[in-house]
Amino acid sequence: MNSLSFSASAKSENFVGRDFIFTAINNFLHRYPKGYFTIVGVPGSGKSAILAQFVRQNPHTIYYNAQIAGKNRVEAFFPEVCTQLNLLLENLSSTPPQPSPQTMTETGFINAHEGSWLFSTLLQQVSENLPNQKIIIVIDGLDRIDINSQAVGTNLFYLPRYLPDQIYFIFARRPYQKSHSGLLIEAPSQILDLADYPVENWEDIKAYIQRNLTPLTPLPYQGMGEQEFSNSPLLVGKELEEQKFSNSPLLAGKELEEQEFSNSPLLAEKELEEQEFSNSPLLAGEGLGERSNLLAENEDNFMYVQQVLKAIADGFYSVNNFEQIPPDLATYYQQHWQKMQSQGLSNVAMDILRVLTAEETQPMSTVAISQIIKADVFDVAEIMETWLEFLQETREGKETKYQLYHHSFRLYLHDYSTLPNS
To answer: Which helix (H) or strand (E) holds 170?
Structure first.
C-alpha cells in the first residue's frame, strides 16, 4: 500500500535498534483513537531510517517523502496520497469514493482548496468504512515543505485541523520553534525529540558500529584468532612486549606492557585497564575478534558514523588526514550551508558563525553571543531561530544555550567563518 522510495528503503537495510521510538509510536497508536506523532531530530540523527523501518514493518502504511526533489509542494502531495486513499476505499469498501485525483488533475485540478477538501473527505470516508483498521500516513521531511506553495496561515500540506477516528499521521522533522510549527491541530499529538534520549541513542550507535564496521584481512601473526581493523599502517601482534608509536590511526595489542600514542583517531585494545585518547572520531573497543563498539561521547550522529565507517573501509584515511571530512559527508554539509545562507548572510550572521565555529566552543545563550559580537540580542535571536535545525539546544535553568549540532559540521563551517564580512 505504501510507496516507500528506493532511497528510503536503502536507509533501513542496515537498520539497528531504535526500539524506544517504536515503543513510543505503538503506545501512542493504542492509547489514542487518532492523532499526530512527530519525531524531531537534528540532521543525520536517523529520522528517515526510522520512518523507513516503520513502514517496512507496517506495509499498509501510506508513505510520503517530502525530501525528494519536487515532492515538497501540495501539488505533488495531494495526488499521490489521495490516490492511495482512493485505492484503499476501492479495494475494501462498497461505498463509491470521490473522483480520483488523476481524473481531477486531468480536468483542471489541483488548486489548494479543492485538494484540501478532497483530502479531508477521503480521510472521513476511510474512517467510516474501515472502523477497525488504523490508517497511518507517514510524512518524512515535514520541514522541507514549501510553505510558499500554499495560502498563508494554513497547515503544512493542508493537513486537517481535526482528524476522524482511526486516522494517524507520523512525521519526521528537524528542530523548530514550537510557535512556528506550521500546524494548527485539535487532535491528540505527541512529540518525541531524539535529543531527549542520549543514552538510548548511544546504545544504538554502538550496535550500528558493531554491525557495520568492515573487517580487513588480518596480519599473518600466529595465534591471534580473528581481527577486525581498518587500514592501519601498524597492526596488532599477540606477544609483543613493547610498542611505541605516534599518530597511528589504529592501535591494538593483547599483552602490551606499554603503549605511547598521540592524537590517535582509532584505538583498539583488549585488556588495557585505561585508554587515553583525544579528539577521536572513532574509538574501537576490543580489537581481537570483536567489532568496534565504542565511540567518543559526542559522536551520536548516524550520518557522521555511517560516512566515517565507509571512509575507513574505502581507505580514505591515513595517518595524516584523519581530520578531513569524507566527500559524501562534505556534500551533505554543503547542503546545510546553502540553506543557512539562503537569505544572504548579514555581518551579524557572520559574526555569530565565527562564535559558533570557534575551537571547542561550548553551548552559549543568545545573550552571551550578543555580548561577544556586540550586537542586539534580538538580532542574534532572530538569526539563531533561522538556523535552529542545525543547532543543538540545551537548557540550564531558565536559560537556553546553543551550539552547532555536530563537531564535524563545526569543522566544515570553520573555513567559511574566516571569510571577511561583506
So the answer is: strand 167-173
